[in-house]
Amino acid sequence: MSMFSKILCPVDFSESSADIAKTAREFALKFNAEILVVYVAPSMIQYEIFDLPAASLPQLVGDIVSGAEKTMTEFVAKHFPDVNATGKVVSGDAAEAIVTLAQAEKADIIIMSTHGRQGLNRLLFGSVAEKVVKTSAVPVMTIRPQ
């Protein structure tokens, strides 16, 4: 039984996600571990700041989640061809969702980027990695994208 048998790898599909995937894959090959790749879609609460009509929010979040699921399937196929990797899309506060999922899935380590998409997302989510590092019960390996 290796020290790292399950890796949680949060991605946001930005360019830095490819770097993270590469590291997580190397880890998985070295430790014969499985990878759970996760994308956290924003929850409805996070969209309320945009003053969108409330009725359109469930539809909006639903569309984002199904779009992300399709992107995730492609991402996993492209970046994890030779390892045991599964993709999962959840919605909510990014840091909270990542920490909760790591616990629920009994992950041994979280491998993530220190920052992802710039602009609005950066503003919306603040530093997700920082929050994860502070609140995670399992080790977190953060990587600065090139």
Automatic annotation (TrEMBL):
Its main location: cytoplasm. InterPro entries: Rossmann-like_a/b/a_fold (IPR014729), Universal_stress_UspA (IPR006015), UspA (IPR006016). SUPFAM superfamilies: Adenine nucleotide alpha hydrolases-like (SSF52402). It is found in: Cytoplasm. Pfam families: Usp. Residues 3-144 form the UspA domain. Gene3D superfamilies: HUPs. It comes from the Bacteria. GO terms for cellular component: cytoplasm. CDD domains: USP-like. Belongs to the universal stress protein A family. This is Universal stress protein. It comes from Desulfomicrobium baculatum (strain DSM 4028 / VKM B-1378 / X) (Desulfovibrio baculatus).
